[in-house]
Protein 1
Amino acid sequence: MNATTALLRMLVFPGILFAAPAAWFFLWIERKAMAALQQRIGPPFMQPFFDFVKLMGKQVPPREGLGGFLMKLWPVLAVAASAGAVGLLPVIPRSGGFPGDLVLLLSLLELPSMFIIAAGFSSRSLWGELGSSREAILSVSYNVVFLMAIIGIAASQHTFSLQALAQSQGSPLRWLGVLAILICLPAKLHMNPFSVTNAEQEIYAGPMTEYTGHELALWELAHGMEWVAATGLVATLIAPPLANPWMAGALFVVLSVAVVLVLTIVAAATARLTIDDSVRFFWRCALAFAVLGVSSVLLMRIKL
Amino acid sequence: MNLWKKLLCYSRRKSPWLFHMNSGSCNGCDIELIAGLTPRYDAEQLGVKHEASPRHADIICISGPVTHTAVNAMKTVYGQVCHPKAVVAIGSCPASTNVFIDSRVLDGPLDRHIPVDVYVPGCPPRPDAILAGIAKAAEILAARAGQEAQPAAAPVAAEEEKA
Amino acid sequence: MNILRLLLNNFLGGSITTRFPNRPPADKGFRGLVRYDPQICTGCGVCAYRCSSRGISFRSSRTAYTWAYDPGQCTYCGRCVDGCEAHAITQEAAPPPLYYKRDELNLAHTTQRPLPPPKKKPEAAPATGEAK
């Protein structure tokens, strides 16, 4: 991957230029599917895009000093990180990539939640700080499982390259890993069983309480891109390798949307767990799974 | 630039986000507003989102005759909602204090404190009437796209001397 | 698993939402705006007396009386309708319309009292619930 292809992937496809509409589309799908499961009509087509434009045109109260600067900075960084994560996805096979880009993708996926934690604390709002501390506790719990699942999958294929992972055949162990990732995704995307972070109405809007106007618009965009990146990662892992790039791209999108739908159904079927229960769930139940997965992968490697 | 203005105008009409404030209401109007979010009426078809933080909201829905204790909170909330904003008074209480008229715990009808854009009459109003009011307020918001300055930032200051 | 079956049924059942500009019709006994017929009104003022929220005010003098109604103040309880002996007050069976300025929907109607016959002095209007 040379500099131009890297830049193209970052900025055009599947980076910002593609990822922003995709983010709005995925957010819309999520809201629409939620509405369909509740016998509602749901928002009109591409509603998140109009939300974005409206928020861009809203005034922001004057913010002064370092705190104000940071409050402006975090959403931009979050958008950049999640756009970078989307840019790394191997939507079209053999379009470049480098060994170890899985590690970079994971770190870029992790950055937005770091920024959310920082954003909540720098907004100096009580609810923001509460939401941030919840996010911090939650991310410490689900990330162990999430990373272990990814490590298990990567170790079973002896590679940390997304390209190679996408090309290789799935094994039962990989499905176990994908299941673990799917369990972690609601926590990563602040979806319902683990939506303690931005728990709507309960702690106002969590870390986002003080954000408004274009800052909030960028947060929404970053959240949508996180959706694209996280579902794309799952789609990469479960997609069968296809030679035709168009077919591969289409399959990728279809699988991503399917993952969105699965997550929406889970969100619609569950209620919000408290922070204690979420953490207990991840450390007691999901961690056992993940350890089992990783250890079996490592044992298999020894046999080989 | 003109295209952007048009798009902005359209988007403001398409995505009104609510903040709901109870200023001493009997809860009737609050329940009807929430009923507007249920599958039967589904406010989300208008792009409405019921926001928890006034910073995110465009439209403030206020129910209840304004009690003395609610006045300051209400003015604070009104100030926290950022520029293009509209106020919907739900029910008869904010319009005129309704049956609580002359009560000594009240601080008058709502428009003594903040400018109100749409009144939804009823005691309580039906959810579909509230939705119609919100849609109207969204149109008012879109019409406000032209004026970039804060429109007469409400008589918030009058309350400060006591504190 | 019960909830999943519920969700599936919801999904297959389609939406039950009323599309926005359409509104479900009001029930038959719906209590909407108060309507007043000055032709039938006897000017007794019981409506103002019975009004629980001072939405109706009734001002009476020897020569005329004024019936005024403020929908913003109205509770739509229907006590005025029930109390009106002459059935001059009715209620619309439709939800009241939105309004944008205070007192926009207010109604006031002044009726001249019929001139008294020259001999007898007119009795004072019974029960003139003078509203402040």
Protein 2
Amino acid sequence: MKTSYSWLQEYLDIQVSPKDLAEKIERSSVEVDSVTRPSDGMKKIVVGEIKSLAPHPDSDHLKVCQVDVGEDELSQIVCGAPNVQSGKKVIVALPGSRIGGNVKIKRSKMRGVTSNGMICALDEIGFEKDVVPKEWADGIYFLADDAKVGEPVFPYLGMDDYLIDVDVTPNRGDMLSIYGVARDLGAIYDQTPKLNHPKVEEVATPAAGKVSIDANKDLAPIYKMRIVENVKIQPSPRWLQIKLWNAGVRPINNVVDVTNYILLKYGQPLHAFDYGKVSGSTIHARYAQKGEKLTTLDEEEHELNEKDIVIADDQKPIALAGVMGGLNSEIDDQTTTVAIESAVFTPTLIRKTAQRHNLHTSASQHFERGVDRGGVEEAVDAAAQMMHELAGGDILKGIVTGASYDVKDEIVNVTLSRINHVLGTDLSLDQVTDIFKRLGFGVKLAGETYTVSVPSTRWDIHITADLLEEVARIYGYDEIPSTLPSGPTTVGALTEKQKLIRDSRHVLESLGLNQAISYALTTEDKANQFMMRESSETHLSWPMTADHTTLRMNLISGLLDDVAYNNARRVKDVALYEQGRVFYKDSADQVRPSEHEHIAGAVSGQLVVDPLKNAKNNSIDFYQLKGIVEKYLENLAIKGDVTFVATDRYPEMHPGRTADIMIHGHYVGFIGQVHPTIAEAYKINQTYVFELDLDALIEMPKDMDQFEPISKYPVITRDVALLIDKTVTNAQVLAQIQKKGGAYLKSVELFDIYDGKNLPNGKQSLAYTLTYQNPNATLTDDEVNQAFEKVQKTLTSELGAEIR
Amino acid sequence: MTLRDQLEKIRQERKQDIKDVVDLKKLDSLRVELLGKKGPITQALRGMRDLPADERPTFGQFANTVRDELQSAIETRRDELKKAMLNKQLASEKIDVTLPGKPVAQGQPHVIQQIVDQIEDLFIGMGYQVLSGPEVEEDKYNFEMMNLPKDHPARDMQDTFYITKEILMRTQTSPMQARTLEKHDFSKGPLKMISPGVVYRRDTDDPTHSHQFHQVEGIVIDKHITMADLKGTLELIAHELFGNRFNIRLRPSYFPFTEPSVEADITCFNCGGKGCAVCKYTGWIEVLGAGMVHPNVLEMAGVDSEVYGGFAFGLGPDRFAMLKYGVDDIRNFYLNDVRFLTQFSKKG
């Protein structure tokens, strides 16, 4: 809400600058979005008086005006506005001036005639088009006749005021009015704001004879009305228009403007009906009936349902209660009798109605946050009195009440020790009493217990904690000391699971992969790729975009999106890993998915990029990524052997270059090359990926590290080269060697693979180094030879190997 | 010429020869020539028996001196030549130390992870547990138990991805407050925990909005936890993450789950508090929300709010990272451009 600095000054003695005031509001009450002055950025715009005008020789619509701008000679200005008139005081932008939109005005020639500046309309000097009064929408603006020629126009239009735009939190609806802000500032600056209360000058005719009200108390706990007769509709006086347009409200006429003014001042939304357009004499506040329609003041037609609250006459809805009036009862130039509604509607119902019809008005926003239930009558009184004063209306006697109740102060208790206990302060009884009094609260003190009576103007305060906040903010958060929690010591440490997750990240980073964080919401298609198990999808019921509709069931697809983003930007070398959750559902009926930690990687291009030309190309391949996964799993020290089992069961993976990863026979994930057709679909280069069930890895038993003495006895090695069928895998050879290796075989290492020229078709050459060691004695050549012999034999007999 | 004169001559002349030798091989032949069995000194010593007996000792002494001198001259020269050779070799081995080092593979933690880890470590050091909760939450924990009943207007502040009416993508990490409060056994001591994680909002992605981002929730509940403790803790976070020259100011705010509620601003990164366009000329930048846990939240979780109370705060690592490193578009964090990810290796 744009709060006028000068309007506040009508009630308070403010000694600080608007900027400092705004800072004070921000530190003590609510956030301030900005402090602005409508004249900011504008200069040399003055009052001018049109002394005479003549038609432009070369134009049908332009006029050549002689304007008194307070200089020795009249200034000639060409003006095209249809309403330009001799004898009027107007807004003149002098040569060298700056007007709205940062436009600079120069002396110029318009179709050959010199023009020393420009006569301006309101929207040309920074007014939003939607606040300019209709009568000034299509022409230049006439200032008051007593405006002094040559002086800046800003004070005459309220443009020299400062507007503090406060961003009111949902609990502080009271700050959505000038009176509310004035009260709060009163508390902050220890002043009593001089708020005036209306005296209503009524005529003898009772209002009750004109109207009766039938209000559903569930919808409108308070519903009151006044009738004002014989109003003369005309534009509001300038002071009122200024207050409205500075608040961003378009002045309309002296009746509608009054209701808007009262809303700004008191925070009580009012609505004025043209009594002459109401059928019958009963006003109903009721639920809408199905099928009823209402065209609101913005000329939009709404189909109503049974949950909407309407104000209706005997025949039809005449307003969407608390949101917007109906066009069918609008105040117009012919209106003579006005029914002013001042009511309280149930916040949740208003909120829903506003949402349903996507009609969020100033009134609905106020009702949603609540209004001062004790101020309903004062608001309607003030409005009626103003209509009397500004529109010459006769106020009928009495307020007609359809629903009401006795609004009482809220009684809340708090002790001084509680205040100091929670705030960490050392406030005295007097200090706290003073704060409550400044806030306008009633205070009774017994011992150290305060019984605080909170007036209806602060309807947000109900419990002790609310009072604590009041004390804290008025005392000042800056004054509260800084300490750290004391009390019993607690142990802070990561859990085993958290440590393993962190370690996992560190290991993969040390192996060259960068951590990525991708979107967990993806397309249904991608959510279903690279699946490690069967699962139903989890869909958003109302997604925002087609790209993010479904919860991921794999991490790889997100990483491939990342690879694609990089590839598209000519970043060819991408090495990423992600640690995060996937979401599984055992069946489509399961509502809430289970969440599982996974860890996955994707590498495309080179892991290590050596820019030197003679460095060899190290584009990622299966074995390089496998090395990373092996090293990672080795770091986790999971008990049991890690094996890689060829598989073609993933439709998104290369059928000949993919392996399931097993630990001690348990499936924990997979690794391999992304299928070329999938890579094409993602628009990525050749990419290798892996995904692991991190939860499973965390839960598997781990090897405990135990020192093993380093043997002082020498090792003996033997090399064996095999010519063997290509279908025989390294794993098979290793298994066979291990099986017959004997007690002293310490390790076997593949040191050469060859399947090139000079070999018979379908054959490959594999060469291994076997290392023997006896931890307790020196091995003899004989012992080793015997063992080695056995290995060679078994390889020949079991795997058909030819020893070379 | 006497023997002595001959020796004297050798001493004079050959010393210079030794000095003039330029390679080790020649030096070695010279050594053999001068000091070998057929060399002049050996010869001279052999000829000594022709001398009168009384001259022999003096001459012998003289011959030995000459031999020692030559020997030592050869040694010196040998050392010189060796050194020169080594220097020559070293000179030939000179490399361009400004050529690039051999690249090795090393990855980096995501910048948001760095911030989260930093926060975790800070709080672990102060005795907090780190807990993580489900990302797919129940309305009950995400809203209702956080004092946000179904029709609460503050729900409008958070646009929510619903899966069903009761199940949603958590919009905040706050539900972990409720979940932990429900479980915590206060007879075993205070509750001090932080809960980092991913949260989701129904937002259109743009430079300042992301439908997915991170939050770290913190809560401390005990018999005597104060607003002053909250202020001190928030100051500590600011100092840890940004440095000691950063200050915190608290402003009143509103969250349904805390009362009093505050928003914490930190000294503007850009201008250091003087006021600039980044901080809208206030010198301050809003970084987190906090407050004293609302009694309703405690009571709904079965905690006696008359006895126990404390503070809670929620901060956004994404926002912190944007402010700390001047990142101007939040989407950078989730697109994983390698050129972006690898910028944040420094822990400063």
Protein 3
Amino acid sequence: MGATGQSRKIQRAGRFVGLFEGVGIALEALWSNKLRSFLTVLGNIIAVSSIILVVSIIQGLDAEVTDIFTSEGTDVFTLQRRGMIFSEEMDRATRSNPRLTRADARALREEGETFAAVVEGVDRRANVEYRNISLDNVGINGRSYEYVLTDTFGLQAGRYFSILETRRNRSVALIGADTIEQLFPGLPVQSTLGKRVRIRGTHFTVIGVLAPKGSILGFSQDELIVVPVGAFQRLFGSRQSLGLTIKPRTPELLDQAMDEARLLMRIRHRLRPGDADNFAITSADTFVDIYRQATTGIYTILISVVAMALVVGGIVIMNIMLMVVTERTREIGVRKAVGATYRQILWQFLVEAITLSLVGGVMGLLLGYGAATLVGMFSPLPYTLQLWSVWLALGVVSVVGVVFGIYPASRAARLEPITALGYES
Amino acid sequence: MSEVEAGNDPVATEVVEQPPSPQPDVPAATGNMIEARGLKKIYRMAKVEVRALDGVDLDVMPNEFLAIMGPSGSGKSTLMNLLGCLDTPTEGTYKLNGTEVSGLDDDELAAVRNREIGFVFQTFNLLARATSLHNVELPLIYSGVGGRNRHQRAMAALEKVGLADRADHRPNELSGGERQRVAVARALVNDPAIVLADEPTGTLDSKTSHEIMQLLVGLHENGQTIILVTHEDDISGYAHRGVKVLDGLIVSDERQTPRFGKD
């Protein structure tokens, strides 16, 4: 009988035999020294809980934020005096941009070939009253009659204002669902039509009630009053720049319409080739892009935090495993004496390291999920637990277990049986 | 192991009735369990050369009960390590149960230990967290025996040492003698060619020592080849053949009448 051939067969048969034993030993060792175990896996707990928490919240935010940016509609774009300001430099560069006026809006309507509608808009907050009820800080939105084409609320009662009412700056108002409820508590919406509310002391007749939209991140979207833009300017003056919401004739024409608006505005503002735009054109896509950039940044930070926590966690696990190997030298000697091979010992300690790492991972998972749930309960931030983040986290901690467990395990597996048994002569 | 059981004491002792150092060129009788020729173990430390074992020949027939004796530092432990395939000789050849093992690598030696050698240690060396049954199963685990078969063989080994009722006890719930019995069961579970007992009674009181030795005597009577390593004359007195080691050499190798028989 060839001992060599037979021994090879034996090695192969028993390679994974220690697997469950390794898991069991690791769990038992963890349980018997809870504080040390907790500290050992702390790095993994931090890493995994950060992954779960951040991914849950960002994924939750994604949906809502996309809602916000598309609440103006995805098939429109806006022309403003100044766009989003990200730096002091941008602030300085755009400070002297000319105001957008009703004349600009008229010009775009006349000259634009791709536009279906140019809605003039101007917003601010003001006090609103009805009899003895007074509401502070209600959003007052001045709009031109084309508002009917771009409105994303819809009406639950009444009608929009007409061309005539816009032209004659009539004091008529569309009222948001929350505001109507606050001004006329308990009154059916139909009965509120024709009532007269006071904005800054001027009476406005209610001609329509907007359908409710709900809230985003805890802020109601239904606390507003929409009035004709001329009436707005009569109340607040015309020094405030308009924002123009432009709807292309078809959604496919969006990019072309944005180009045309830019061209027309550059001509009106007499800009020369090479001059920067002194106005801003943005679409929902623009905002979504900016948001995506921001979340990419957050993910990048997350990855570095997680990587650091994992390296620290891994080193601690390696340290503990080296200690475990030293503590159990005699046990390794016995196992080798009764026939354990290099691979079998290697596997045993590798499995132990992976188990240790995974236990930290699972604890981090629970912690991260718990934290995300708490955030969801006590803040308006939404969250969704992403299954992929769970697999990612567990996969990563397993890899950490292997990477940082392989060295202690190979130290154990390389031990000479007589050394390990204390038989060195 | 019918081959082993076929042998009986008179035949075995007759063969050993040879001068202490048999001539190397005389072919050994076929069927030897152990055939060692010119075994040397030399440690080189700095400029000093320590010859722990300086050329040892040894033949052991199946079903011998052999005691290796010698004071500490004599080379007795080194010889045991080599015979137990825990270490490899610097020079010489070692044939165990027909297999030349001196040239094997670590994993091959592990497989040979697993199949051919059952160790009984002075300090028992049981896994503290494992039950008796699991401790006995250990060699079977490493030879890839699984499931019911493993369980049955381990239980059978525990029955042989009279501890079937302690199968689910951990070492700290057992007495010293019981622990050593578990260790003996572990040594037997893979039907090894030899049981190698290193000071098996070193930490036991005399009564328990006698019980453990009785257990080994019983195994021997059932055909097991046993090599006992000890420095205690009382303990070596159970063996049928005494080999004395001194300064790395075998200085005497004699058949002896066991001073303590089976009770």
